[in-house]
Amino acid sequence: MVHAAMQMAPQPQGTAVEGTIKSYSDRHGYGFISSPSLNRDAQFKTGELTADLQAIGTNLIGRTISCHVHALSDGKLKATHVSLKTGMGMSMGCSGQGCGQTHRGYVTIFDPVSRLGVISAPGVAHEVHFCETMGQNLAPGAEVNFALQMLPDGSVQGTDVVAGPPAPSLGNGLVSGTQTAGLVKNYNDLRGFGFISIPGGSQDVYFQRRDMDDASQTLLTWVGGQGLTGCTANLRLEALSDGRWHARSITLSEAGLNLWDGAALAGVVKAYFPAKARRYRNMRIHTLLRGPYND
């Protein structure tokens, strides 16, 4: 029985193969690799992936990899030591976002145990996930230099992540990529931009109409820039290279997405009947609506 078990066990080294990840289930912890040099797909488990590949998760599908393939006694194939094929990281599908070039960004999330993290970078539309392998202390807010690697689904991964100078701060622990809230200070309808005041911030944060979600843009259309003054803005901070700050992904609470009993609203009167409870209706308008409205 011992001899038979030894024959059934995969060989320790296997055959070096280059192939493509055909499928992968993060929940079940395994996937399959196809290669012209194999007569059938080879199965691999999550534990056989290098740390940078594990960081990609389900976006592994379509990646070109190198591995060792072992033939099992039942005819199935098992892949081990699965790693990204050397030389493929910077050339695959990298168009439009500067793949292969050095970028600068700021760490927004980092787990010192798994060494996995997320970078926010100006000019990059997606969050950039990365796996740190050099033992650097990359606390949230740390500035880093990195290269982009485009994945088949259009998302991007950061490679060659190296710590840079300290990240600029708006004050009160606010760094680029931070989700926070503030009050709209003003908005210029003609020029299409305005400023948001952030509690504890060293300067007001610039924003444009296009930085707001659809509901907030609709509210702007109804009440105009003056009507936005004092509205609560939930936003993501972005530090610009010239030292200014930009507000992105803005949601105005008064736009109706985050309501609660007693919340302040902004809007316009659609209909009014003086003969029916004028005093009561005007009281409700002033209680619920914010901005320079007249009776």
Question: What does this entry look like structurally?
Answer:
- There is one protein chain.
- With 295 residues, this protein is mostly beta strands.
- It folds into three domains: 2-84, Beta Barrel (OB fold (Dihydrolipoamide Acetyltransferase, E2P)); 102-167, Beta Barrel (OB fold (Dihydrolipoamide Acetyltransferase, E2P)); 171-288, OB fold (Dihydrolipoamide Acetyltransferase, E2P) (Beta Barrel).
- Helix content is 13%, strand content 38%.
- Strands 1-2-3-5-4 form a five-stranded mixed β-barrel.
- The chain is elongated, with a radius of gyration of 27 Å.
**Which percent bin holds the helix content?**
10-25%
Overall tally of structural domains: 3
CATH fold naming of the largest domain: OB fold (Dihydrolipoamide Acetyltransferase, E2P)
Oligomer type:
single chain
CATH superfamily annotation of the largest domain: Nucleic acid-binding proteins
Level-2 CATH architecture of the largest domain: Beta Barrel
The strands making up the biggest β-sheet line up spatially as 1-2-3-5-4
> Quick one: how many beta strands?
17
How does the helix and strand content classify structurally?
A: mainly beta
Would you summarize the structure shown here?
With 295 residues, the protein is mainly beta.
List key phrases describing it.
295 residues, OB fold (Dihydrolipoamide Acetyltransferase, E2P), mainly beta, 3 domains, disordered C terminus, 38% strand, 5-stranded mixed β-barrel
